[in-house]
Design goal:
By secondary structure, the chain is an alpha+beta fold. It has one domain: Chitinase A, domain 3 (Roll), CATH 3.10.50.40. The protein is about 30% helix and about 35% strand. The longest helix is centred in the first third of the chain and has 12 residues. The radius of gyration is 12 Å and the shape is globular. The protein starts with a strand and ends with a strand.
Length: about 90
């Protein structure tokens, strides 16, 4: 079964999500940005979600995590929780 490890940043609006993505693309550290901005409890660990299988996350999240290139920040991805920036850190298909 496919497994992935990812980290994310969760915010409540698309504009903030885009602003943070630009900061990361311009050299800001993903983990630090997560600690300072993400509303998810995972922010304490730099947004790290650990390892999970297909179907364990909401569908919008799953679709990106199991198709995006590893190490490339994706988003904004809208779910019922808000807007996410996602980075797949490892994947085994």
């Amino acid at each position: 079964m496919a497994q992935a490890s990812a980290r994310h940043i969760l915010v409540d609006n698309e504009a903030k999500c885009n602003e943070l993505k630009t900061a990361i693309e311009n050299g800001a550290d993903f983990g630090q940005v997560a600690k300072e901005n993400s509303s998810c409890p995972s922010s304490r660990d730099g947004g790290n979600l650990g390892t999970f299988g297909r179907g364990q996350m909401v569908p919008e999240f799953d679709a990106v995590v199991f198709s995006a290139p590893v190490g490339v920040v994706q988003g904004p991805v809208k779910t019922q929780f808000g807007y996410h920036l996602l980075e797949v850190t490892e994947r085994q298909d």
